[in-house]
Amino acid sequence: QYELVPCRYRGCRAQLLRRDLDTHARHCEHWREPCHMGCGTILTHHTQAQHNCYKQLRQEYEARQQNHRTIAAALQRKMKRMQCTMVHMRRQIRLICESLEVIDDLHEME
């Protein structure tokens, strides 16, 4: 805990107490780590906040695409149901019209 140790980041010459290593690492200008999303970009404290990982963007894009496909499939099913309903309604209207013609014919015969 009170032993002097070097900073673990290449290029940093700081000698610190072991207990202060973590605090130093959060601010060390030599800190370098690969992107946690796996894109391979090496980040620094300065670039980490602005890093716009394409893998995260790709995942969000694919999730939205899947959502759009789900919505499109639901709309297509609804459209087919509406088309079936329209066919049924047209059939009913045709039958009503035919029965009205028969009634008209009967009234004319009287």
TrEMBL record:
Keywords, ordered alphabetically: Coiled coil
* Annotated coiled-coil segments of the chain: 58-92
Q: Gene3D superfamilies, from UniProt?
A: Zinc/RING finger domain, C3HC4 (zinc finger) (3.30.40.10)
Q: Spell out the protein name for this chain.
A: Ring finger protein 151
Give the gene that encodes this protein: RNF151
